[in-house]
């Protein structure tokens, strides 16, 4: 029997997609930038089925491509155009919330659960699953684990990695590792889950996870302020961290260009302040106590900041509607930018203390390539994560002779600046296929060598999402 | 030249100890339970020296035993009595605080820094390094990383693993991995630091680390209460988590036997309550804001708990001296227990929700072996981590026919109960050599297999702390 026949016997015809129309949604990424052929798409319903699928693929020597909600920004979850066409293992049918243990602040879910469904199951028990990002209505929890997703809650709660207690993984040899621990402390050997978190499907298929929950914050206070400069914004961050500790839950900065694009492209969004200042910061405090107390601290710290001359202007949200409107601006940046033109998004992180230097130097580096090019900036400032976006109108972009080369050159110049400040070229989006060159360029041979040794130890046949995450070793020079 | 001669040329005679008197403090653990011979003890002063030492040991095929402050509870850091005597690499001379970046909330330190010195360097900049444990005055930061140390701050700040941003490691082949990142977000391939954290020196030598700092709490509120039962204590924990979120910084439970031992053995310690209730909980709130606010919340929640009939009694500390006295009881348990008799300490963790069931069942299991044996309990309740300590007087223990077998049988019965509740036999103390049998017994073959593959990939010659952490694979059956 062929592999597809065997898969059909195993899963039933409805769970093995081969017709071009049926697989089209799985073989192309959501932004339409990448596509490649697949042997088929399978939709298993259980961990045992995933394991059986993997064993068949191994027998046939066919690559396996784990896929969640297909919301990757780096082309990590759709097939390439070279090599053997993979079997795409889509986890959408494995979407059960297995258990919520409120007293233990933990939840066990299958990998195909949509992130928002996990948040809802937690909230139903008065708990918070704190990972929150634009794609939360469609990305799957397995994908967020495979990519160590970040988002707007990292400042307080950490990345996805920090919120995973345990995993169930089908390994590349088809065995199942049941590592579904729900413990806060467990010092019994290597903490194996970290081999799979952020591995982008190269080390096996995550089929289920146990996750940390937190008390659900019941009160919020939000302000929208205009700091004098990124350096002033950093001083403001320091004041909030000293005064509020862990109740500081967001500190998001955008520049004037970004705010202008949002308000122009989406007219229902309005600048909360009366002038378009150069920098804007959304500050959120969240806690489980009384709302008045948060509002008071927020006012106190902003008064202190004004006394230190850090602010040009600022306003506190006084209603839920105002709070929502402020967050809506922040959440609209991708949609607005897509309407406005071509943004060469980057995803740098640097030490928080180096953000002002990064912005200055990256701007200079880009302007050395295209003088005066507008820069759009969206920063998770509290994490040192800056989406620094050199921005072209569609008309300008069409006039560029070699757009691919221009995009690479500009992005690389930004990544160079981040690297020189001990930063990184991928803070939260991952590597996928887009950033393999940067991996080869910036990572030390020792570090790449360690990653290759791990891959070789877990997937010696190199069948799991081959050619992603870690670039192949340079070939030995010919004799 | 012999290895020792080569090491002496490399490091100078003062940094290579061979005389029996000189090495005695390094070849025996602090409790005097384990000792074994060493080829020598070397005390390198730099990462380059450590790397050169490793290369020499590899050349000679001599095992390498990394050693920090030698405060392991599991015999993980002193030589065994079989196999080739290792070179002990003691990091005490590498104790520089390299940099503190207050704005980035990070610190870079060498591995030999004593934990308390790291805390002090952070505090000098208004920051907190939150790992805190009994041995903090002598354990080294490298050792806390190699063992993923826990302690009393885990409830709020996580384990050591959660507070490491990056590492510098001399690998078993003598190359140096510079992974001293200071970033909050960095999704560029596998997060390699987790291969070394908690690896107990089996995967290389940590020579430096970058660590997360936190705002230094400036206000504290502490209460000492007597809940009706462990189940009532859990309900109380839930009330505090809902009301205080992240400002809950400790929730430590001891039983009447433990409190009695402390107050009897160390007469300066006094029971904060007027009666010896069956269970006692120390609750601490810490924050960066005003002390009054914390005290108010603490009172409110305790009032709520009293209304729900969860408490037999309770008292709030009203001065710094009272707070210190309450913590002193908690910190005196090891010293007092050592004076009082032989405690068969265990280090279980279970899901927080299962702690009451664990205590009941473990008590029954031990009493099935020794009817009526007193049990001493010290629990980091908020983490589900229970030190469940069956307790013999010295006289009783001397009457036990085969003490080694008795200790094993009793501990194993406790570990069985933890395992049946999806718990672990080592929450924070690690594995070392003491718990290798339990590793072999409780861990799945898949999990042990993955750990062995990692070890094989990083240390194929098995020279780094051999025979620790992961038990050898069972030999194949003879044909």
TrEMBL record, chains A, B:
SUPFAM superfamilies attached to this UniProt entry: FAD-binding/transporter-associated domain-like, FAD-linked oxidases, C-terminal domain
InterPro entries from the UniProt entry: FAD-bd_oxidored_4_C (IPR004113), FAD-bd_PCMH (IPR016166), FAD-bd_PCMH-like_sf (IPR036318), FAD-bd_PCMH_sub1 (IPR016167), FAD-bd_PCMH_sub2 (IPR016169), FAD-linked_Oxase-like_C (IPR016164), FAD-oxidored/transferase_4 (IPR051264), Oxid_FAD_bind_N (IPR006094)
Keyword NADP carried by entry: no
Database matches in Pfam families: FAD-oxidase_C, FAD_binding_4
Domain FAD-binding PCMH-type: 34-216
Keywords per UniProt: FAD, Flavoprotein
Family: Belongs to the FAD-binding oxidoreductase/transferase type 4 family.
UniProt protein name: FAD/FMN-containing dehydrogenase
